[in-house]
Specification:
Layout: H1 19-29, H2 36-62, H3 68-92, H4 97-109, E1 132-139, E2 145-149, E3 152-158, H5 172-182, H6 186-192, H7 200-205, H8 209-227, E4 231-232, E5 235-236, H9 247-256, H10 267-286, E6 290-295, E7 300-304
Antiparallel strand pairs: 1-2, 1-6, 2-3, 4-5, 6-7
Helix pairs in contact: 1-3, 2-3, 5-10
Length: 308
């Protein structure tokens, strides 16, 4: 199957080129029809050009990284060819490339802004997270983690529930981080008996079992993705605090929480909650328990060692 050849790069003067103008140019030079073989030709061309970009970068890094001008010239040409195929694929499927760009800008804007925290201020005091709270993590004589608030045991005593010890028994700190930074944690609402029963739909759909299962699934997904590489001869050596959370992983989390109130939270806010949760998690492990002071209003979590 032959591939249509992308046109060579031409010099474009002012004013700046728009996606619409470029698409019109591609339409004039697009020789494939819209049947399945034609579209496969375009897809094969796109993959081929992506490979050309990879080869150009590989040569630059491995052979002659000093010849910057030649490398940039080659890369510009390969990127231009790749853009041509992208535009051609969009045209073949009646998709506006400018609309695609705008949708992507809207989608990725949340990766640089911490925004969208869930607010429960409209609910009664007994149905909303308090302004401040103190959580005490205690390791019992049976090596379980017990969580206390104001000296009262809450939730279940937790073990790792794993063949290889991995300190997952401290994972409630992730739910606390979600509640403090995102304003969302159906799991913590359930543990603290803060379900919003004054509104039946909210109680069932936001604070109910399904939402709790989703949150627990997110917690174990994050743990598996960020921690399972930290094994040495079958034993976990330490908890890993991620510097960043993978873009792909944040997208999965966003899809899992679609249609829940937490969908207003930006990926950047999710990332902040995850990283802060793991920072406190590591301190709890290193200190064999401890106290987590939470300011839900300000979205702040602080660790301190256990009181004697």
């Amino acid at each position: 199957m032959s591939q249509p050849e992308a046109p060579k790069r031409t010099t474009i003067g002012e004013p700046p080129l728009t996606f619409s103008e470029f698409s019109d140019h591609v339409k004039e030079t697009h020789f494939s029809n819209r049947n399945i073989p034609g579209r496969l030709n375009l897809l094969a061309g796109l993959v081929s050009e992506a490979g050309s970009i990879l080869n150009a970068l590989k040569r630059h890094f491995e052979q002659d990284s000093r010849n910057t001008d030649a490398f940039k010239a080659e890369l510009r040409e390969e990127l231009g060819d790749t853009l041509w195929y992208l535009a051609a694929i969009a045209l073949a499927n009646d998709i506006d490339l400018e609309e695609v760009a705008r949708l992507n800008m809207k989608k990725t804007a949340g990766y640089s802004e911490e925004k969208g925290k869930v607010c429960d201020a409209e609910y009664s005091e007994y149905e909303r997270f308090p302004e401040k709270m103190q959580f005490k993590f205690i390791i019992t004589e049976t090596d379980e983690v017990l969580l206390q608030v104001n000296g009262v045991n809450i939730g279940d005593r937790l073990t790792d529930n794993a063949y290889v010890p991995d300190n997952y028994k401290f994972h409630d700190v992730i739910h606390i981080a979600f509640a403090a930074i995102l304003g969302w944690s159906p799991v913590l609402r359930h543990i603290l008996r803060l379900k919003r029963k004054s509104k039946k739909e909210v109680d069932e759909n936001e604070d109910g079992a399904r939402a709790r299962i989703i949150e627990e699934a997110i917690a174990i997904l994050l743990f598996n993705e960020t921690q399972l590489s930290q094994r040495n001869n079958g034993c976990r050596i330490e908890i890993l605090v991620p510097e960043k959370v993978d873009f792909r992983l944040l997208n999965i989390v966003k899809r899992m929480t679609k249609d829940l109130e937490v969908e207003t939270c930006s990926p950047k806010l999710w990332e902040s909650a995850i990283i802060r949760g793991y920072e406190i998690w590591k301190k709890l492990i290193d200190n064999k328990g401890g106290i987590v002071d939470v300011n839900f209003k300000e979205g702040i979590l602080e660790f301190r060692e256990k009181d004697d």
